[in-house]
Amino acid sequence: MKKGTKVSIIGVGAVGATAAYSLSMSELISELVLVDVDKDRTEGEALDIKHGSGFLRSISIKAGEYEDTKDSDVVVITAGVAQKPGETRLALVDRNIKIFESIIPEVVKYSPNAILLVVSNPVDVLARITYELSGFPKERVISSGTMLDTSRLQYEIGSRFGIDTRDVNAFITGEHGDSGFPVWSLANIKGISLEEYSELTGNKYDENFREEVGKSVVSAAYEVINKKGATYYAIGLSIRRIVSAILGNEKAILPVGTLVNDYYEANDVYMGMLCVIGINGVEQVLKVELNDEEAEKFNNSAKTLLDTFNNSFAKKNK
What we know:
The protein is an alpha/beta fold. The protein has a domain at 6-143: Rossmann fold. The chain has nine helices and 14 strands. It has helices spanning 14-24, 39-50, 93-110, 123-134, 147-161, 194-201, 207-228, 233-247, 292-316, and strands at residues 6-10, 31-35, 60-63, 74-77, 115-118, 141-143, 168-169, 172-173, 181-182, 188-189, 192-193, 252-260, 269-278, 281-285. The strands form four sheets. It has a six-stranded parallel β-sheet with strand order 3-2-1-4-5-6. The chain has a three-stranded antiparallel β-sheet with strand order 7-10-11. A three-stranded antiparallel β-sheet has the order 12-13-14. A hairpin with a 2-residue loop joins strand 10 (188-189) and strand 11 (192-193). Helix 1 packs parallel to helix 2 (39-50) and helix 3 (93-110) runs parallel beside helix 4. It is globular and about 55 Å long.
């Protein structure tokens, strides 16, 4: 791990505050800076965490301005309009573009060598916009991608099979949203295919199982938002996992959002893909082989995201 690592979080609403709390309890960083237009809220969040400093390792936590983020190693961007009940992530794009057009130049100005981790929704489109606005190489502009979707998928499979979620090897690819999908052809439990595992244990695994799980994953955010107004605990943990992989130079394989080119019909679009993550950001994109049905879903997801980008940011900036 790097010594003296600095992480800044832009946007200290529920997601940003939860990410700050999660990161403060880790061994990852020495300095954490929180920035938000709501100064009182930001100072309150920083102070609330600092009041627990007697239970934490030594870490500097500050509510500040953009200049205080200077020389950050990682900048996490959670700012933006939140998703409302019944609203898709893609519906947020026009409102959040305006916010990003004010944020990204300030972040780049003070931390030109940082890795940018985009979390705000629609995360795939906003990561693509961040890539354009920042001028950073694609390796240093990452989105949380399908990290959260993948965790939800692993939870659903594990709970149905009655096993530890961490023993489930499965992932979601494509959009962090309605067109993302599980790659069932590669899913396994400790290297045992789901078909074989179901036969060994007597658990049900068929097309109905896959459909039910897929629908549960897609509807998970809507369910949480309808019940409590927002999702933030699980995504806060996802942020911590990605930052850990970066600062710890782990070479971890994670389904983050990256710029995809020459993969089936996807070109010049940010999507959730399996990537090797280390100190330089995305160090390798793993273009795994999909079956025909999965490839078609991937192409459809890519088209959905590219159309959204072209009809919003790209069209506006012609």
